[in-house]
Design a protein that fits this description.
Length: about 170
């Protein structure tokens, strides 16, 4: 398996392939044009954007992306409104926001998701990372994040939790 990290606008090059995996995993992308506008295009333009990809031979089998989160961004504002002020003061702003991590079903259970996670976060200048995920502790994504040191910071909505992880820049 080959892993590649893209920073900034260089991440646009594999966009159509990313869309294919995104749509296969999440089934909510609509068409490529709409997806390029939102969320992909919106996130790609944010500071600190980073994309990690996994390929077996030439086939894209998974990806993860994120960027530097800031107060005033939609997701950060939702978190600020949902979590206790002490948590917000400690964790929010200047954090790395892990937005998406996806692996094609036939490649799951081989450590690809964990490696994508690690490659994406490796060497970041941030001190903290945040994400949202299901609050079902049996969810494979939750198990992956727990195994990598993420902790629950609070609830964003019914069935959705905010996780945080300290990073060593």
């Amino acid at each position: 398996m080959d892993y590649v990290v893209y920073d900034g606008t260089a991440a646009f090059a594999p966009a159509a392939e990313i869309f294919g995996v995104y749509d296969a995993v999440f089934h909510d992308a609509g068409d490529l044009t709409a997806w390029l506008d939102s969320p992909w295009g919106r996130h790609l333009s944010r500071g600190g954007f980073r994309l990690a990809t996994a390929r077996e031979t030439r086939q894209l089998v998974g990806f993860a992306w994120g960027y530097t989160g800031a107060r005033g961004q939609h997701w950060s504002n939702l978190v600020a409104d949902s979590l206790p002020s002490a948590v917000v003061a400690t964790w929010l702003g200047g954090h790395f926001e892990l937005v998406e991590l996806a692996v094609l079903e036939e490649f799951r259970g081989r450590g690809v998701g964990g490696r994508l996670h690690d490659v994406l976060l490796e060497g970041l200048p941030h001190h903290r990372a945040l994400l949202t995920t299901s609050d079902d502790e049996d969810d494979p994504a939750v198990r992956l994040y727990r195994a990598r040191g993420w902790e629950t910071l609070g609830r964003l909505a019914d069935g959705v939790q905010v996780l945080g992880r300290r990073l060593a820049p």
